[in-house]
Amino acid sequence: MEIVGDWLNLAIRWAHIITGIAWIGSSFYFMWLDSHLEKPDAPREGIEGELWMVHSGGFYQVEKMDVAPRVMPRTLHWFIWEATFTWITGALLMVVVYYLGARVFMVDPSVAEISPLAAVGIGAGTIAVTWFAYDALWASPLAEKEPGLCNILSLLALVAIAYMFTRYLSGRAAFIHTGAVMGTIMAANVWRRIIPGQRALVAATKAGTTPDPAYGLKAKQRSVHNNYMTLPVLFTMISAHYPMTYGHVWNWAILLALFVIGASIRHYFNLRNVGRERSGLPFVAAGIVAFLALAFVVSVLPKLSSQTTGPKVAFAAVDKIVTKHCIMCHAANPKHDGFDKPPKNVTLETPTQIRKWVEAIRKQTVDTRTMPLGNESKMTADERATLGRWIAQGALVE
Asked: What is the residue range of 372's domain?
């Protein structure tokens, strides 16, 4: 059964990456395309702009209509299935990895004493509800009168969601669920707003009536929203590899900081695409400086301020903690039901092995608190502090 789960995980994850690349690629391409359209040298009725490109050994000419063509072409290409299958594969991956493994990957007793079922309910329920709240806000008259205010409200809502997730779920699950909230909004924007608006334009053209340009404007608004959410969502997709972010005590703030940094970088490229690169430079500069500052505060500063003073920690105390919380998995013959060999071939059964992996212990157990996995054995803050002080004192093995 474990083999089936591993290969199912691989197949779905691979499909998710493939469809995600296709969706993001088309999104970036059309944002770039719109920003590079030029007025034809000889004005032509109904043509908003045109663009010449060279690629793959050939020349391409693209024209964009003011609203819609007078006569619908025989073949019309749509861009919907990329978003559809990205969301479907992402949802399946969430089920296979997180919901079926909720006890390990979603529940952290040091965060909240909740059941796996409750954790799944919080995650899935929030994903479902958030889309309707977002859509109601941006479909309301307020969005037309005060779009800036709606942007602020949306950001505050995202802060609240990220904070709530980190108060009930493990850090890793909190990050991926925040990304899933945004990914669901993006996919629903395509299904519920962008494509229906385009279909209305097509229907009006086929009926011989004048299409309402409002449909295109509303679709464009949601498309821009998706564009700015892309880089933040991409980070959450890879966040499981970076426990120094989701395992930090201020993980929700780190996540939001990375979201803002990603959106700033995206804004730079959007300005650059319309020939306003100088206007965008402050955004990319601010994003880079903020990223470096975040890395310093999260990873460098704690090392510089490590407390080496205080009572000396005897290795016997460390060995006791490791035996209690780590040996069940990190042994030549693990006793944990989920492993038939030590994860990443890390064994901690002897003083020599413990000393060998001391940096991994510091990173995973002290700095980010991501081990034990799901904190199944309920390692306490005092035990983590003891390990940290022993490492700071030189990790001596008597």
From this structure: 315-392
